[in-house]
Design a protein that fits this description.
single chain; mainly beta; Quinone Oxidoreductase, Chain A, domain 1; five-stranded antiparallel beta sheet; two-stranded antiparallel ribbon; globular
Amino acid sequence: MQALVFKGPWELAVEEVADPVPGRGEVQIRITATGICGSDIHGYTGENGRRHPGQVMGHETVGRIAQVGDGVDLRIGALVTVNPVIACGVCDACFGRGGAELPHPHCGWCGARLLVGLRRAAGGACAQCGVGAAVDAGGVRSAD
């Protein structure tokens, strides 16, 4: 697949990378579009230092399910979007904010949270990408 890869500040390249294979609880998404947000710009310019060479950029994306791993109840071809914040769902931050009785799977205060395209390898600026824990946490939402 083709992916937009961060090479260093002010340098991006479209490169061929291996197709991801979805594992249990994961999906592969054929990307239709990926947005560019402020953190992408700060990463591109090197301002925040949170991007590393070789990283696939992008975390605000929409596409269609191309493959599903075991345990995933989404149909191939479904139009989906991804909430890029994946929280652990078990810590005090996930349970404690706003008196929630259930864990909030996209808690921004979770110390163990991952961000697709930042602290998780696969970003959205590619032809296809695998999104793991987001499926189990409800972060992949079908629009169909």
